[in-house]
């Protein structure tokens, strides 16, 4: 009897990350293209995107919380992931103005860079709290991986946009890992 119980616990432990990922889809699926565009426009107007997100889908997000028994921390992580997704989709649209840029290469290089830095540095990226040194190292990593054309870096708007993109990707990375543990 005890061995059956232990096998059941082991199966539950192995399946937990997959279950967390499925549960996260509950929150991510709340954002359609129109809502994404509205929330991204609010971000560009310097409005508090978390509050706008809560206004738009708060009741449905509360249903996710209740249906999946999320903790307060898991709910906060889900919100940060969804915000990162909203921002990334908006930034990708803005990148269309810059010829010669491969979003797939930028995403891959950004994710590789984020995976290579300590968790506390990733968290700083997620919070948009990175200094000139960290930003410079990130840009160097992008250049080494040929993820951005060097001539685009002369454009200040492009530089700001790749920093915002990194923060959006970091939000997704940092808080997805946290969500799966909560």
Descriptive account of the structure:
This protein has 182 residues and is mostly helical. It is 79% helix and 0% strand. It is built from eight helices and no strands. Helix 3 (49-68) packs across helix 4 (72-95) and helix 4 packs antiparallel against helix 8. The longest helix is centred in the N-terminal third of the chain and has 27 residues, at 2-28.
What is the beta-strand fraction?
under 5%
End-to-end C-alpha gap = 29 Å
Mean pLDDT: 87
- The helix count comes to 8
Envelope shape? globular
Radius of gyration: 18 Å
Helix content: over 70%
| Category from helices, strands and their pairing | mainly alpha
Order of helices and strands: HHHHHHHH
Give the uncertain stretches in residue-range form.
Answer: 1-18
Largest sheet: none
Q: What's the topology here?
A:
Elements: H1 2-28, H2 33-44, H3 49-68, H4 72-95, H5 103-116, H6 119-126, H7 132-144, H8 156-181
Helix pairs in contact: 1-8, 2-3, 2-4, 3-4, 4-8, 5-8, 6-8
């Amino acid at each position: 009897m005890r061995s059956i119980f232990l096998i059941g616990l082991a199966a539950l432990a192995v399946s937990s990350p997959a279950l967390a990922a499925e549960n996260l889809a509950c929150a991510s699926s709340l954002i359609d293209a129109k809502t994404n565009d509205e929330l991204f426009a609010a971000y560009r107007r310097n409005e508090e995107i978390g509050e706008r997100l809560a206004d738009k889908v708060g009741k449905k997000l509360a249903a996710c919380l209740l249906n999946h028994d999320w903790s307060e921390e898991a709910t906060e992580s889900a919100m940060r992931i969804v915000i990162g997704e909203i921002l990334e989709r908006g930034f990708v649209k803005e990148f269309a103005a810059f010829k010669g840029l491969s979003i797939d290469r930028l995403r891959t290089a950004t994710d590789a860079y984020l995976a290579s830095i300590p968790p506390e540095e990733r968290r700083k990226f997620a919070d948009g709290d990175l200094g000139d040194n960290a930003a410079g190292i990130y840009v160097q990593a992008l250049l080494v991986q040929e993820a951005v054309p060097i001539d685009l870096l002369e454009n200040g708007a492009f530089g700001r946009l790749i920093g915002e993109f990194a923060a959006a990707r970091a939000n997704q990375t940092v808080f997805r890992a946290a969500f799966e543990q909560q």
